[in-house]
Amino acid sequence: MNQAVRYLTKSRFKLAAECPRKLYYTGKKDYLDRSLDDSFLAALAEGGYQVGELACLGHPGGIRVDDLDHQVALAKTAELLQQDEVTIFEAAIAVGTLFVRVDVLRKTGTRIEIIEVKAKSYSAKKDGDFRGAKGQLKSDFLPYLQDVAFQRYVAEAAFPGHQVHAFLMLVDKEQSTTVDGLNQRFKVVVEGRRLRIQVTPGTTPESLGQLLLAKVPVDGQVDMILSSALAVGPADLRSFPAAVGAFALAYSQDEPLLPTPSSACGGCQFKAPSWPLAGQPKSGFHECWSQAFHWGEPDFSGSTVLDLWNFHGKTQLIDQGVLKAKQVTLEDLKFDGEEPGVDGMTRKHRQWYVCQPAWPGGGEYYFDGAGYLNARAAWKFPLHCIDFETSTVAIPFASGRHPYEITAFQFSHHVVHEDGRVEHRSQWLCAKPGVDPNIDFVRALRDALSKDDGTIFRWSAHENTVLNKLREELLVLTTPPADKDALVSFIECITSRSVSPKEKVHGPRTMVDLCDIAEKFYFHPSTKGSNSLKKVLPALMKSSTALRETYDKANYGGEGVSLNFMEPIAWWQEGDGGVMDPYALLPPVFDDVSRDETDAADEGLSEELKEGGAAMAAYARLQFEDLSDARRASIESALLRYCELDTLAMVMAIQAWDHMAAAARA
User: Fold this and answer.
1) In principle, which of 42, 106, 613, 657 could form an S-S bond with 604, CB 3.0–4.6 Å?
2) Distance, CA of 60 to CA of 7 (rounded, Å)
3) What angle do CA 63, 65, 69 make, to 5 degrees?
4) What mean pLDDT, rounded, does the chain reach?
């Protein structure tokens, strides 16, 4: 393969538009790059490859240029473009050291269409022309628009005398499929670290029914981007052509551009969790901040302003030279510093506690026992902890379904009895290829929770949102099940929902959000202010003597206790100088994907799919990959164990807080 030319490709341009310094780190094996870890599973979870194949099928007669060698691909594309009319998939275009692959290129005479295909959802009613109220390009679509802008820029330079037009082809949420089994026509084939889609033989444009894709013209938006400026370094804004030239030169010469620190550094894929040790991959983030601020290893030991939870002024603080969390003042947070009130902590309290251990009572962590007990007073035994795993597949299962509708394929259910006994009472999983599980999911959940009127718990809004979506689906089914009314009534009983912008209705048994309890009444500095269950559980393991005493022996498991752990396990274990994260005690979900890659799966997903990335990827493999019975059983077993731990973690939170509250009253 000819690697003599270091091309600025569209993916590298995208990185440079995010942060010019990233160009230097990409592709280097000695630098940590979490995007390499998560891209494989994210592609599985989002279904981007399947959407790409659907777009190709929507352009019959197109010719694919799939050569990996740049020069071969360029030569084949140039030969095809000699035709007056042609459609090319993955067309290769280069000008100097700029190189792009166009998802779909259509040429008719001197007119060239550049079509960038994305698995992102689109609604003409909601998203319109991708502009906000003030005419600015919407931030969630800006990277895609910059991508196609770069492609049009290169194509216009490569084909003088032609009219080049840009389009985004997105998944249209307003459409619904008109055929059954559409998604099963696109099977996933995993070949090492690469994915390809195997389209079922006999699939024709006619067999696809409604295409489900929206082709949106974006020349106006591209014009805005090409006439605007891009940052090449700190306080260094240049015109689009000048910035592209600077990016291309830096990459071709393998020279780093100056670091431009901002709030975006918190999510940098080249960021290691801590200062890397000898023998570990280098951390681009640490190099950037070391160069920009003359920091050494000790400076990274504490929290930085990047760790401030849900705070939107991070870039402003960085620009002012306020970098470490302990340097942040009450004035910076616009906070008066008062102690939490009867309703518990606010967002400002949690932000301030990240900066200063100034919570009432001092100590290792903060817990408002009185506030917790007040919230707990309304709970009724037995307590039910539930957790869902869901997917939002781009290509629907059945006729009448819209893209990215919720698919609820799994739940776990723990029960805490009044005498303290803990029971993993029920679970449910359906990942059979081509089967829409939603209605059976609701039936199974109703059966699990209808044996008593004990309080039901969730962690965050996900379960409430899912059930409300399933309720809406039941209400509009053209051929509803005979028990539709009973299922709708059950959902309305245990959920809350908005009936107007100012009014919310709550069912008589509305689920209690334990995440809300954590947000108001518990803060541990190791969580950095986050209320994610996967951050709160390790913190509770560190801070709760009750959890240590309950789970430091191999006594969880077996009949009557667990449905998946037949061999007892100790969840409280020491390792690496501290208490281990219980999730680290589980085997990986996949035998061909490392734990680090599985843990990083969420990072590569779009915001709308940000939760449960590993579970969604597992579901995608169970749906769309031809697996042996043994591998299928292995993945399903792993899913059941992870989901069981999710609800056990909720039980552990209740146990820890109960003990803390009792100790505070003593």
Assistant:
1) 42
2) 31
3) 170
4) 92
Residue 173: CB partners within 8 Å, gap ≥ 6? Answer: 121, 122, 123, 402, 403, 404
Is pLDDT above 60 for 457? yes
pLDDT above 80 for 432: yes
DSSP H or E stretch at residue 242: helix 240-252
- How buried is 227 (Cβ within 10 angstroms: 0-12 exposed, 13-18 middle, 19+ buried)? exposed
pLDDT at 587: 86
- 286 close to 318: Cβ distance less than 8 angstroms: no
pLDDT of residue 598: 53
Element (H, E) at 632: helix 629-665
Name the nearest CA neighbour of 321 among 230, 232, 234, 231. 234
For residue 554, pLDDT beyond 80: yes
Question: Which H/E stretch holds residue 54?
Answer: helix 48-57
Q: What helix, strand, coil percent values describe the chain, rounded to 5? A: 40, 20, 40
> Residue written as tokens 């995440």?
515
Q: Is the pLDDT of residue 538 over 70?
A: yes
In the predicted structure, residue 7 carries a pLDDT above the cut 60: yes
Read off the pLDDT of each residue in 457-470 and give the average, rounded to a whole number.
97
Distance separating alpha carbons of residues 447 and 441, to the nearest angstrom: 10
Alpha-carbon separation of residue 339 from 44, 342, 344 (angstroms): 46, 10, 9
Q: Provide the CA 135 distance to its chain's centre, in angstroms.
A: 28
Q: Is 90 exceeded by the pLDDT of residue 599? A: no
Q: 441 and 430 in contact (C-beta within 8 Å)?
A: yes
CB 404 within 8 A of CB 663: no
**How does pLDDT run across 8-34, given as a tens digit for each residue?**
999 999 999 999 999 999 999 999 988
Alpha helices in 338-451 (DSSP H): 347-355, 369-376, 438-449
Give the pair of three-digit tokens for residue 380.
Answer: 């009724």
Show the beta-strand stretches assigned E in 378-489: 383-391, 407-416, 422-429, 456-458
Tokens of 256: 């780093």
DSSP letter for each residue of 500-522: ETTEEEE-TTPPEEHHHHHHHHE
CA within 13 Å, CB half, 603: 19
Alpha helices in 295-400 (DSSP H): 314-319, 330-333, 347-355, 369-376
End-to-end CA, the chain: 72
Eight-class DSSP state of 621? H
The residue assigned the tokens 């780190």 is 25
Strand-pair partners of 578: 575
Give the model's pLDDT for residue 2.
46
269 contacts 35 by C-beta, under 8 angstroms: yes
Instruction: Identify which has the larger pLDDT, 131 or 664.
Output: 131
Residue found under tokens 């803060």: 523
